[in-house]
Amino acid sequence: MKVDYQSKQVLIVDDEPDVVRLVAQNLAAAGFQVIKASDGDEALDMVRRLHPSLVILDLNIPSVSGTDVLRAIKSDSRTSQVSVVMLTARKDEVDRIVCLELGADDYVTKPFSPRELTLRVKSILSRRSTFSPAQNYSVCGSISINREAHEVRVSGRIVELTAVEYKLLVALFRQPGRVFSRDDLLNAVWGQDADIEVRTVDTHMRRLREKLGVGAAHIITVRGFGYRLDGE
Q1: Same-domain status, 92 and 168
Q2: Is there a single domain that holds both residue 13 and residue 119?
Q3: What phi and psi values does residue 122 have, to the nearest 5 degrees?
Q4: Are 61 and 80 members of one domain?
Q5: In terms of DSSP H, where are the helices of 175-215?
Q6: CB atoms closer than 10 angstroms to residue 89
Q7: β-sheet bridge partners, residue 146
Q8: Maximum average pLDDT range among 28-32, 102-106, 127-131
Q9: What single-letter DSSP state applies at residue 74?
Q10: CA dist., res. 135 & res. 147, Å (int)
Q11: Domain limits at 103?
């Protein structure tokens, strides 16, 4: 699916002018609308007012930390669908895991390649463009779901899934490209009050992948965290 990037607005949140300038130039050259914020308060105000397609967010920003900005975006039903890419000098694994757990779509460390960052932004928004909550028919790579008929196909072939397997796949389809923790998937399929071991998700995911065959390549395991759906 061809994506019209001119209709995509990207908010850059960073207090380093040189970084903002470099990222903005590359995104603008790729056809994106670019807006900017230099601190957490300004960033949250712009997200809530303008609803950008994606936010590129530094962790170390004034007034409200990048972590708290991310948490606020993803915990608010009005903004939770906004994609977020973390762009930070912090390389510790714990920072990466915390941000992914809070709902970040990607985590890029400084120094970085502006071209690669732009490609990552394009990839995230391209995947998001294949799904709309209002649609009954969704496609990701070789996998298609007709939610009205509860029918799943891989390369045109109908795949028979259990109710749990189907719900897991639909949960991933809701936000292609987002990394879902095992707890996220557990809550989405069984509910927050379910007395079920988190590792049960792995068991059902393994069976789902077996049934999807070649389509299993679109379900990516993120080591130490969970799973994401990738249409590429």
Answers
A1: no
A2: yes
A3: -60, -45
A4: yes
A5: 182-190, 200-212
A6: 13
A7: 137, 151
A8: 28-32
A9: H
A10: 8
A11: 5-128
pLDDT of residue 6: 55
DSSP for residue 51: -
Tokens (6 digits) for 191? 């509910």
Look at the chain and report how many structural domains it folds into: 2
The 3-class secondary structure across 152-177, one letter per residue, is EEECCEEECCCHHHHHHHHHHHHCCC
Same domain assignment for residues 91 and 190: no
DSSP letter at 18?
H
Question: Can you read off the two tokens belonging to residue 103?
Answer: 């709902």
159, 98: one domain: no
Check whether residue 32 and residue 115 sit in a common domain. Answer: yes
CATH code for the domain of 174:
1.10.10.10
Q: Tell me: the pLDDT tens digits for 51-71?
A: 898 999 999 999 999 999 999
For 99-164, give the DSSP string. HHHTT-SEEEESS--HHHHHHHHHHHHHHHTT--TT-SEEEETTEEEETTTTEEEETTEEE---HH
Q: How far is CA 177 from CA 83, 124, 128, in A?
A: 9, 6, 7
CA distance 60 to 80: 21
Q: What does DSSP assign to residue 87?
A: E
Please tell me whether residues 115 and 200 are part of one structural domain: no
- Give CA–CA dist 184/191, Å, rounded: 10
Pairing assessment for the beta strands 106-109 and 151-154 based on DSSP bridges: unpaired
